[in-house]
Amino acid sequence: MRIAVVTGGSTGIGAALARALTASGWRCILLARNLEKLQPLADEIGGEAEACDVSNRADVDQVAARIAKRHPALHLLVNNAGIPARGTFLELPPERIEQVVRTNYLGGVWCTRAFLPLLEAAAPARVVNVVSIAGLVTGGAFGPYAAAKHAQLAFSRAIARELAPRGISVLTVNPGPVETEGFPQRDLLTRPMARRAVLQPDEVAERIVKALERGRSEIVLPRYLRAVALAESLAPTVVSRLVSRGAGRSGALRGRERPPQ
């Protein structure tokens, strides 16, 4: 049986992907901070649950060691755990900025390093890094979040080259707005045109499974957001201004985030 570890597995994309992978024959080991919330889903899909804060390197190492005692090889690692951070560098508390970097960026680094021996034992194996369109553009009232996602994207592309000789391939996923518990999209859902850009977790999970089956290395969801990323690389100042204006019209959603469990 193919074994997959999914971080941030209690809600949103992580939970949807765990169900999709299970339906495709995988056995999923779900990681999240809140075990009480995680265990019912693990029971539902016939998987396993481990309490883990990916921002804590020691915690990640301990969980990886426990899993290694039960499973000698790991065929898929999904670095999906993330927390929101709507606010600018000058507005957010320093502690929140540090937590965003530790979770959204370093969490994937620590998990990849900790589970590397198990991935090598299963080679050929896969790593999926769920990044964000925020890793491709900047602007608006989410500077620290975008910075962490830019770092995560750079890590995902760089580690792909490092892991290839070890028989491990990497899929980088850059979704646009997704309606989840930790990342509500109330402002976009109230606008007819913008509503079309909002994805549901099940849609993202389905696209990830298909991308894995097809051996893809990087995807952007929806596809048309690739044009935004291209525009950012060619005219970053213009795109930043447009994104900032859009955030201003939507009220920037400051103070309305709900941290995921």
Question: How does this model look, in words?
Answer:
The protein has 261 residues and is an alpha/beta fold. 51% of the residues lie in helices and 15% in strands. It is built from ten helices and seven strands. It has helices at residues 12-23, 35-45, 57-70, 94-122, 143-163, 186-189, 192-195, 201-213, 225-234, 236-249, and strands at residues 2-7, 26-32, 48-51, 76-79, 125-130, 168-175, 218-221. It has a seven-stranded parallel β-sheet with strand order 3-2-1-4-5-6-7, with helices on both faces. The protein is globular and about 50 Å long. Residues 248-261 have low confidence and may be disordered.
Provide a brief overview of the structure.
By secondary structure, this protein is α/β, with parallel strands linked by helices.
